[in-house]
Amino acid sequence: MAKPIKRIGVLTSGGDCAGLNAVIRAVAYRAIRTYGWEVFGIVDGTMGLMNRPLQYRTLDLHFFTGNHLREGGTMLGTTNKGDPFNFPMPDGSKKDRSQDFVEGVKLLGLDALVVIGGDGSMNIVSRLCAAGNIGMVGVPKTIDNDVHCTDTSVGFSTAANVVTEALDRLQPTAASHHRVMILEVMGRDAGHIALNAGISGGADVVLVPEVPYSLEGVADKIKEVLHGEGRSHALVVVAEGCKTADGETPTISYAGGQKRYGGIGHYLTEHIADLTGAETRVTILGHVQRGGTPSMHDRLLASAFGVHAVDLVAQRKFGKMVAWRDRGVVEVPLDAVTIGPRSLDPNGTLMHTARGLGIYCGDFERLDDDAVSPDECGSATPVDPNLAGPEKI
Fold first, then answer.
1. Which residue among 144, 189, 298, 311 is the active-site one?
2. Architecture of domain 162-288
3. What is the DSSP string of 250-287?
4. What is the pLDDT of residues 340-375, one digit of tens each?
5. How far from 352 is each of 108, 109, 358, 359, CA to CA, in Å?
6. In DSSP terms, which residues pair with 207 in a beta bridge?
7. In what residue span(s) does the Phosphofructokinase domain sit (predicted)?
8. What per-residue string of b and e applies to 50-66 under the rule 16 or more CB within 10 Å gives b?
9. Topology of the domain covering 7-154+294-343+374-392
10. Model-level pTM?
11. Would you list which residues are annotated within the binding site for substrate?
12. Bridge-partner residues for 40, per DSSP?
């Protein structure tokens, strides 16, 4: 007979986003109020279990205030650096610290983990849990919305709202000064934010990593708007992961030699001005997209995911991730999720919508037929809520 579940941990890993605290709150409420379990919040992702002493917080009902549902970021902290299987040490060497993680779970007496993360952190933590035979259930979060097998992830709605609001604010100043405004947004591997917000914010050009483009194509669209349609301004949205027209990847260097995606907005500004003669300005939103009060949709999604993740733990359905499909929460296998980022479908509904509105989204005749892999997730099973309750575990 399996050991009864009495104590679980919850952690956030990877980049922060709005809605993480709502997931943590939902996990704690469901685990404590329905199942009578103890819940521990692991501080700073996997580091909280790798560090000695362990870093964690006891999440009881007295811990939560009315503010947590409304707060951005993560109350537990997070990390997106340092692969535990190849961890950088102070002397410059690399060390496999996976067993430190496994030992930390055992020292805290956890019977299972709920892991809130994107595709990268899901991959790493699922491997850590497999190394220690630790039960894990995943909850998808990322502003990029690039996790496989789920229609949407926690944090995406709020980020897209921020970008849409930015376009709403840029449009009046663009119109007042007869300018082309370029907005560079996050999206390292996928253009979901750029496309969703570009449509919602009335952009004339939307450039995403999945579709090649030409500077002439961008310029022709802007000339059409400014001269053919008689409008005094234009709006351009570009994902940070877009390459230049020559296929180069713009990066920005930081202190310590680190390089990050960025610079595509400035590149476009210079070339659009040369090709069109229009006065051009660029705005880079950056981490503004990660912060702020979670949207209603992200709060609902986070709450549903947190409750159903705990139900999967109760049912001992480990190695699963909760996902949003067909207007409800389903369970999908983690090995279908941890295969890299989910790209935007160039032939999907939203791209068809954008092109139908006359938005220039790239040169589709240059797109390879197999440029984007289909999102094949196998069977998605609805999480059974009727098994809830400690007497039914």
1. 144
2. 3-Layer(aba) Sandwich (3.40)
3. -EEE-GGG-EEE--HHHHHHHHHHHHH--EEEEEE-GG
4. 899 999 999 999 999 999 999 999 988 876 665 556
5. 51, 51, 10, 10
6. 238
7. 7-313
8. beeebbbbebeeeebee
9. Rossmann fold (3.40.50)
10. 0.90
11. 142-144, 179, 186-188, 240, 281, 287-290
12. 9, 58
